[in-house]
Every structure is written in C-alpha cells, then in structure tokens.
Write a structure and sequence with these properties.
Distance between the termini: 27 Å
Order of helices and strands: HHEHEHEEHEEHEH
Radius of gyration: 17 Å
Mean pLDDT: 96
Shape: globular
Strand content: 5-15%
Low-confidence stretches: none
Length: about 230
C-alpha cells in the first residue's frame, strides 16, 4: 500500500511527484521546527536537511515533538533523523549538529535547497539565514515568536513588513531594513505575550500547542508553494 495514497488523492500524482524531488532545509528542530520537519516528510518531501546544535532537554517535553523521557540528553538532529526515517525510509535526511553563525554558515550550499525554513531563536542567526537565502535566490520562510502565547488560532502567515505586536518581528523588521534584506514571509501572532510568573531569565514560557501550530503553518506554506508551481 502506498503511504502517500491519501495525499495523492488530495493533490494529484504530478504534484506529489514534485514534492518527492524537493530538498528543504529546516534550521532549528525545537517546538516549531520539529513539527515542521515531520509534516514536510509526511507530506512527501523527498529530501530534508535538519540543523540544530542542541541536545534534548527535560524542559523540551512540554512542546517538542522529539522530546520524551527516553530521548533526553540525545542530540536533537539524531533523534529527528531516526523519527523521519521511521516515517519514510526512502527520505534522504542530512543532519548538522551545529550552531548557525558566521563560522558555520559556509557549511551550507543554499543554492542546493528548494526552500529554507528558519525556526531558530537567535536574531543574529535568523538574519544570517535570511541574507543567505536571498543571496542564493531560494524561497525562505521564518518563524517569529511562538513563546508566551496561548492562542494558536492567532497565528498567521504574512510578509515580515506587515507584522505587528510580536516583539521578535519588530526586531527583525528593524534589522532586516538596516541590512538591506528584502521582505519575506513569516509565521507570527498578534497575541499579546503572556507573563503569568515573574522570572529572572529571558527564556520565553511555552505550551504544547502554539509552537507546533506555527511549525505546521510553515510546512503548509512550503508544500503549497511547491504544488502550485508550474511544471
């Protein structure tokens, strides 16, 4: 039986065939990126690169797809690769256990990708990805802040220049303009961030359903862009 049968019924054999030929890079395999990567492979994307320097932490269990008691302490990209291949053994999965910065950006040939997904947290890394994708003329989409939110229905896809409310989007609008980086699509929320408890750390609070919803929206954008291509 064809595991992609119901997808084929929905989008057609030609579109599914295009998905099987695409290569997507997902930078950041956390609450957003992990769900995005899995949705892409389940949709039929044939080749995927997953990038994350971190290990699974006990605090990831509340929202990250790959985080369980059994995976705590393992490299995220390693766990993600196993999971993706258990879904589609024919998928071509490449893993990079590196932090994205000026020193490691050269590891990636952005011209080899058909789409680049930014699910990172660090502003500097997000800017580096946006610039690299633009220079390579590769479609690019970025996740804005999914922390401190409770309403997944408030998430939407928009151009970065059209965003409001989201503090991360505000910073990114300013910094991309300063660097001359062209506008690009993002997933963001107009929900005002929640702060239920005072904390001494800047790490955002999170819950099980908002970051995953953001990742699924990104995957939907990537897949729809591919299936709408003119052959």
């Amino acid at each position: 039986m064809d595991p992609f049968l119901r997808t084929r019924w929905l989008i057609g054999s030609d579109a599914l065939g295009r998905l099987r030929e695409k290569r997507v890079a997902v930078f950041g395999i956390g609450g957003v990126g992990g769900h995005c990567a899995e949705a892409l492979v389940r949709a039929g994307i044939g080749e995927i690169d997953v990038v994350d320097f971190d290990e699974v932490d006990i605090t990831n269990i509340n929202r990250q797809l790959i985080a369980t008691r059994e995976t705590v302490g393992r490299m995220k990209v390693e766990v993600m690769e196993e999971r993706l291949l258990s879904i589609d053994p024919s998928a071509r999965v490449r893993t990079y256990a590196v932090r994205v910065d000026e020193d490691t950006a050269g590891m990636f040939d952005f011209t080899a990708y058909d789409y680049v997904v930014d699910a990172l947290d660090q502003v500097s890394a997000k800017l580096l990805l946006a610039k690299s994708a633009e220079e390579a003329s590769v479609p690019f989409i970025s996740a804005m802040g999914a922390g401190n939110k409770l309403h997944p229905e408030a998430l939407e896809i928009a151009m970065l220049s059209e965003t409001s409310v989201c503090p991360l989007a505000k910073v990114m609008r300013r910094e991309t303009k300063r660097r001359g980086i062209s506008d690009y699509p993002v997933v963001y929320s107009k929900e005002v961030p929640h702060k239920a408890e005072a904390r001494d750390v800047r790490t955002p609070a999170s819950i099980s359903f908002v970051p995953p919803a953001s990742g699924l929206l990104i995957a939907s954008k990537v897949v729809r862009d591919f299936i709408e291509e003119r052959s």
